[in-house]
Amino acid sequence: MNQRNSAVIPDKVNPRLPGGFNLPPFGIQQILALMIVCIALWAVGVIWLGMQGASQWVGSWQDEIRIHVYLHSKDTDKATALKQKLELVEKVESVRQVSAQEAAAWMQGWLSDARMNQQELADHLPVSFEISLAEGASEFLFSDIRDAATQFGAVVNEDEVNLAQAHQWISQAGYLAGFASLILALAMALIISNTLRMTLLARSDEIHLMRLMGAQEWFVRMPFILEGMVLGAGAGIAAWVLLWPVVIGTGDWLYTMQIDLNSWAMLLPLLFGGGLVGTVGAFIATAKVSSGDIPSN
Amino acid sequence: MSIDQTKSQIQMQQLMVRYPTGKVALSGVTLDIKQGQFVYLVGESGAGKSSLLRTFYGGIRPSSGTLMVQGTDMRQAGETKIRDLRRHTGIIFQDHRLLFSRTVFENVALPLRVQGWKTERLIPRVRKVLSYVGLGDRLWSYPEALSGGEQQRVAIARAMTAKPAIILADEPTGNLDVDTARRVLDYLMDLNRQGATVIMATHDLHLLESHPGRVIQLHAGSLARVEP
Question: Is residue A138 within a helix (H) or strand (E), and if so which, with residue range?
Fold first, then answer.
């Protein structure tokens, strides 16, 4: 038989050589792990989609939340005093008096170009102050702004206050969502680690033999690292697909609140997040096989 | 392979091996094994034959004394040197330790795969060594479809596929009938004639008559007899 013919692999024969970049075959354990991790990643996806919807609801597309205070008196001294008083409130970054012309132009736009007389509109509008808030929350911030406004007979735009408060609550919820995601990620890594540990046990003879034949550690471990990565990434994609029924099912209801969820934004985080937790799980699983059978002195 | 029969392949001086449990497996063993020798390690169960073989591939490290294998100091060698040594050592076990979930090809290809050979290059080499042991047509069979003797021949093929300088065989004929054991030994003798140093632990003393070689007898972890 010549060299060329002897290298031919017969039909239906698929050599699966262990080690290196060759993935071990997937079995029922891997499928179960994929399903469990998929559910956990789906839960993470739902949490962050909820955060996305809540952010849209409070209008957090704005970089900065601003509160407006309206003073109906045209007394310049009173306006200056109110501005100074508002500037003294803790966590107020700046106070800007909105010019009558700017306010009128904004009103004109808000009324969908009602073609009112700009000057007449400016004369009837109250003196407006735009308050920019500093980073971080102050417990009595909005009460202090209200007190300052009330002293000068001014009023605060309460809708904006409600939005700003909601924004603060959502920021807090963001931390909670991050914490929940971290806990779920840890659980997922441990599930994958446990699955790979079982695979490692099932293949302990193979691993031992490879080491007896002088295999390098990376060569022995790489298939399991890859398997963890593929498990996690596969679960991430499956979780992303399963988000679509949620988004489509709640679409009409969310639309009434002007919320338009973007599922595509979750694809890469779930894919790479899943891959990352899978890799971490694989490193945990293979950490204990690193000692090998080469005893030290 | 050119054989320099004056060159030491394995040298040991006052070798002592103590297991972590405290049991002394080998004590005060001084030996010199030249390149191209066929060596039988004999002795009762627990005499230290397997322990001695394990020290030759770094499976256990000497507790004291010196041991040089193919120029590597086995007491001082790091993991990289041990790996390198193992790549030049073929090991055959009594229970052959074949992977039953993998084909004969995959089993025999394993040492070369570990050394980074690509599948296309592996097939002719594996086919050649399997033809040598008379199993050229069983490339894609699974070990469970083979008889005990055939399985041991696959193990021999696996041990020789990377053309090792030393072949260590730990009771390779232990589970075989006399005729099959003789055939297995024929292969090992032939590999020895081709240049490999063969060190074989065995209980089958009758094999020594038909297949002569250097005999090293161990007793209770110490050297009892060396012939010639």
Answer: none
